[in-house]
Amino acid sequence: GRQEGRQEGRQEGRQEGRREESVSLILRQLRRRFGAVEAVQARIQRLPLAQAEALAEALLDFQSPADLAAWLTEQESGRS
To answer: What's the average pLDDT block by block, 10 residues per block, for the chain (80 residues)?
Structure first.
């Protein structure tokens, strides 16, 4: 039982680490492309890993911060 718990804890830790790294990279890319992103930073930091990874791909097609805001709104309405 204890071994299983440790393995689950490690797996959760790895996933959380991946999510944090994804979010960090996304924020750096968005800052470089659009400048300040503080207005949406908290929203991005709340994304689960799968959505963060989807955003990392989607942001390549964004032409403006409005595209980012629309994408985030769409994702948030899908989670509700």
So the answer is: 80 88 96 92 94 96 95 85
Cβ partners under 8 Å of residue 70, min gap 6:
none
pLDDT at 80: 52
DSSP 8-class letter at 46: T
DSSP the chain: -HHHHHHHHHHHHHHHHHHHHHHHHHHHHHHHHHS--HHHHHHHHT--HHHHHHHHHHGGG--SHHHHHHHHHHHHHHH-
CA angle in degrees (0–180, nearest 5) for 42-43-47: 115
Q: What is the pTM of this model?
A: 0.81
Which pair of structure tokens corresponds to residue 69? 């805001």
